[in-house]
Amino acid sequence: MSESVSEAGTRAAAEPAYEPAAPAPLNIPRTPTGDAGVDALLERLADAGHLATDGHTEVYEDVHRGLRDALTALDARPGPPVPDRHPTAAPR
Questions:
Q1: Which of 13, 16, 70, 88 is the most buried (most CB within 10 A)?
Q2: In angstroms, rounded to a whole number, what is the distance separating the alpha carbons of residues 66 and 40?
Q3: Residue 68 is part of which domain span?
Q4: pTM higher than the cut 0.70
Q5: How many Cα neighbours within 13 Å face the side chain of 79?
Q6: pLDDT tier at 61 (50, 70, 90 boundaries)?
Q7: Which of 60, 61, 35 has the alpha carbon at shortest distance from 49?
């Protein structure tokens, strides 16, 4: 029961070609963080819903880079001043 080459070609021609769905918004809710920079990055994720799948990587990498930079900036902020003497030591 083997198919001939012409029968296989006719069957393949009758099957519709695969066509990916058009980009569509993902509609994933994002809760504001209160930090304008972080919130803008999270809103940027909505851009992925308007792109073909191969465009998602650029958006995700951009958002990841921005979030990483925001976290790094938190480490770079100066903390409270360091006392120059022990708090229980008598003044000189």
A1: 70
A2: 10
A3: 33-76
A4: no
A5: 3
A6: very high
A7: 60
